[in-house]
């Protein structure tokens, strides 16, 4: 069945907006996607009908608690968690990772080792670096292979010792787009007795996640990257998080997951989170899957992957035709399934921001810079103050938008080269 792109786009009001008559092309998706009308409606409905704190016995507080419970259940289905108790919802990925890193720090001592990758977003690096500095931990760095663009299992194996306490891994890069073999990497780390913390922020919009199949201990993602509101979601394996003692108020609940969710929750955003998960389920149902919500979500990803991958290759092929342009990531059509549709490039002699400013002026939305992929740009020798041009596809983008973007890239680069000469 073909992907129902017209029906999908109709669900996103932002896609029909214009500026002074000019259409918008949203290719800034790795930094945050647009939302379906259903997500905005759910947030609004909560604020208007269930706006209360938790723990009381009147109607709005009871309704608010149901919204919170529904959000945890929805994310349990989205990630294939064993229980909603394993779902911790907070402000964003970075805040949750800082909180969990400090909690895990209570189990570590000077001389213990942690492994960090050169491929991760800084949100899965700095919290651990600063924890190591505070506690006297040893940091071991795991580079990515610049031929495969992935973290290789053999490279991880050489770093593991009997002192390794945690391995922080990247599921998919927000700069190169490369997808790592996290299940295999996790298996190697677990054999050494280490905890595994997976950053799936960039993978979650583009692929089905099964935390139990991966075998990791923690996995984190961001709802605003998969058509939802600004929230972070951390899954923790029940036996692991149940043994941890988080930093929290003395009188707040010791139950799971509440003891990890500090302060009053963003209840209206949790309503939007459930709606975002249900958007995927509805997409799967439209393809004829009438099973569980998890089964419908799986069907939705099957369809969206089949739609996104050719768009990504269309973009890559078009960029590759430009002389002196370097794509930093997998370009082989046979390996398009090993990347998400985020494509970054540099052009010899041209600062990425100058390209992006010109394209933004044409209402093509994309980013330049290091995009918090701090370790990647340093490993590749890319000036961090310049970074890359980053184009990120979501499943509401069209082939026509990709073609128009490529035409703009070609024209802008030609213009900038002419100005230089």
Automatic annotation (TrEMBL):
- Domain Aminotransferase class V: from-to ranges: 25-403
Q: Which UniProt keywords apply?
A: Pyridoxal phosphate
Database matches in InterPro entries: Aminotrans_V_dom (IPR000192), Cys_dSase-rel (IPR011340), PyrdxlP-dep_Trfase (IPR015424), PyrdxlP-dep_Trfase_major (IPR015421), PyrdxlP-dep_Trfase_small (IPR015422)
Native species of this protein?
Answer: Mesorhizobium wenxiniae
Classification via PANTHER family: CYSTEINE DESULFURASE (PTHR43586), PYRIDOXAL PHOSPHATE (PLP)-DEPENDENT ASPARTATE AMINOTRANSFERASE SUPERFAMILY (PTHR43586:SF21)
Q: What is this protein called?
A: Cysteine desulfurase-like protein
């Amino acid at each position: 069945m073909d992907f129902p792109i017209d029906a999908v786009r109709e669900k996103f009001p932002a896609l029909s907006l214009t500026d002074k008559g000019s259409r918008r092309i949203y290719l800034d998706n790795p930094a945050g996607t647009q939302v379906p009308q259903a997500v905005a409606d759910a947030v609004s409905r909560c604020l208007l009908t269930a706006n209360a704190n938790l723990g009381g016995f009147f109607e709005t507080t009871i309704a608010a608690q149901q919204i919170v419970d529904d959000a945890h259940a929805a994310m349990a289905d989205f990630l294939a968690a064993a229980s909603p108790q394993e779902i911790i919802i907070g402000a964003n990925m970075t805040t949750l990772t800082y909180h969990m890193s400090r909690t895990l720090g209570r189990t570590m001592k000077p001389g213990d080792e942690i492994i960090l990758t050169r491929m991760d977003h800084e949100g899965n690096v700095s919290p651990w670096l600063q924890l190591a500095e505070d506690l006297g931990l040893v940091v071991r760095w795991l580079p990515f292979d610049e031929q495969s663009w992935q973290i290789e299992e053999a490279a991880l194996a050489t770093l593991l010792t009997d002192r390794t306490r945690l391995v922080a891994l990247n599921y998919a890069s927000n700069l190169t787009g490369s997808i790592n073999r996290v299940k295999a990497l996790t298996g190697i780390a677990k054999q050494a007795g280490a905890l595994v913390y997976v950053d799936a922020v960039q993978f979650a919009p583009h692929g089905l996640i099964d935390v139990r199949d991966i075998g990791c201990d923690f996995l984190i993602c961001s709802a605003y990257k998969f058509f939802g509101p600004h929230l972070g979601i951390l899954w923790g394996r029940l036996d692991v998080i149940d043994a941890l003692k988080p930093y929290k108020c003395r009188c707040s609940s010791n139950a799971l997951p509440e003891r990890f969710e500090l302060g009053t929750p963003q209840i209206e955003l949790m309503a939007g989170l459930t709606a975002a998960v249900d958007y995927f389920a509805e997409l799967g149902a439209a393809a004829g899957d009438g099973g569980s919500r998890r089964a419908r979500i799986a069907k939705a990803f099957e369809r969206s992957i089949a739609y996104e991958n050719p768009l990504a290759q269309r973009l890559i092929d078009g960029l590759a035709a430009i002389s002196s342009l370097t794509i930093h990531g997998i370009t082989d059509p046979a390996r398009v399934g090993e990347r998400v549709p985020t494509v970054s490039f540099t052009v010899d002699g041209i600062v990425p921001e100058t390209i992006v400013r010109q394209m933004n002026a044409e209402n093509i939305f994309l980013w330049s810079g290091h995009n918090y992929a701090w370790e990647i740009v340093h490993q590749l020798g890319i000036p961090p103050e310049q970074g890359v041009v980053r184009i990120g596809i979501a499943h509401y983008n069209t082939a026509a938008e990709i073609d128009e973007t490529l035409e703009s890239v070609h024209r802008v680069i030609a213009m900038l080269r002419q100005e230089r000469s």
